[in-house]
Amino acid sequence: MNSQKKSSFIFKIVVAILICELTGIISSIISMPSMYPWFSEIQKPSWNPPSTIFAPVWTTLYLLMGISLALVWKKDVGSGQEEAKQNAMLWFALQLFLNFWWSIVFFKFHSLSISLVVIVLMVVSIIITIFKFAPFSKVASWLLIPYISWVCFASILNFTIWQLN
To answer: What is the pTM of this model?
Structure first.
């Protein structure tokens, strides 16, 4: 990789990671004031993770998501594949958009049912993103596996909390 391509990739990786991390940070800032005491008072299953685990998990997942996006973004493709690459990146943007809104719907608006719809849509869009990223970078697809795993767990948790309340 020549120095111009290397600096271009570094730029893309920094921007992609910032986009992902800022999505989580801004969503949290909007959601947090309404989270307590509501969240501590609702019924949760015994297997609900402790609150202290969420920030490091999400920070790591957003980092992996950003790297994944950067790997696809940097990929040089022929004119015939450019539309497919842009489509893959649009699916990534859609799942990130849903990710942003899930916390707000759940924690700020306390809507367990609508947040369940949002998270199911998020699961579907992440799966589609994984498959859309694969032709451009297998590594990018694999980097999203921890994310889809965590979101599937969160979906089950969201469903269970909805059922309990």
So the answer is: 0.95
